Amino acid sequence: MSKKYKRCATDQYGTEVFFHEALMGDQVSELRVRTPEEATMFFVPIYGECFLWQYEMLRREPRVRSYELTNDFYMEALAIVRGQYPFWNRTLGRDHIFVFPGARGPTIFSDWQIHIKNSVYLTPEGDRKAFYYDTWKDIVIPGLEADERFTHPASRQQLVDNPPERKFLAYFRGTIFHREGNAYSRGLRPRLHGLFVNQTDIIYNTKKKECDRQCYRQEMAESVFCLNPLGWTPWTLRFYQAVMTRCIPVLIADDIEFPFESGIDYSEFALKIREKDVDNIVELMRSMPEEERERRRRVMDRIWQIFTYQRPPVGGDAFYATMHELARKHRMFKSSSIHEWR
């Protein structure tokens, strides 16, 4: 499916393809075992987001029908997992891993609560209020940025060695006014528009056709702060792109959980502003001394690669950070009620 639809492997939801391909690669053979009896966890490769996209967006099937087909797709895959392999029933699927790369999480599989509620989800959507996200068992991962202009170490180092002039105080391009009104972003994005309307050194606008990805990256690199207001959900790829371009991320999403929080102190490089306090955002950004801005960039220089998916995976990138998180979760699972020690 990913060969037929290249988008499924290269857009921000491409992690369901990436993890499968990476785990099958020779470079990470140390993570695989020869027999399932040796395994501590099982990866289930299902391209559900890609499958749903081809019906919902490409073929323009009605939403209900697209979800029905996607549900059937998952059920067929689970029939294979449960019918041909005896390992699911040992833990009721608790040691099985699924990637749900979009903001809708496992809800793209309508019957997920019946069949895979105990399983581990790799998802970019760390929304603490979402009923389908469980911080105890699930793992927040970065979205996929496949453009090497953002992710290649040499491209990143150029921004360190020859930093561009920072022409803009803050930067955002994306949806601001939505047809659903204030239901979208809880009205935050239109509110920010009102705050920035007279600020000549802030780019806060919708995407424009003449600004391609190279232009987008350049504008980010020329900005001191990159704004990340919530949309329908808290997560956004902009956060990771900001770190990749040495632009200090400004998070405005109260309920967000970040990737790899057990090992990263986000307060060392990012700003997080409560939604109710956003009226002070311009003053907060302008008042930060240049020394502090540069210190935060240096922190990002040390950790930026953990938000990238290198091809092939390398130590310290998002793939290996996720593997470390899985190992940590597995140790926690040993203390759960379904295990016994002898």
From TrEMBL:
Subcellular location: Golgi apparatus membrane
Membrane topology: Single-pass type II membrane protein
MF-aspect GO terms: glycosyltransferase activity; kinase activity
InterPro entries cross-referenced by the UniProt entry: Exostosin, Exostosin_GT47
Main location (coarse class): Golgi
Pfam families linked to this entry: Exostosin_GT47
GO cellular component, one term: Golgi membrane
Keywords: Golgi apparatus, Kinase, Transferase
Transmembrane segments: none
Every Exostosin GT47 domain range: 5-288
Family to which the UniProt record says this protein belongs: Belongs to the glycosyltransferase 47 family.
Protein's recorded name: Glycerol kinase
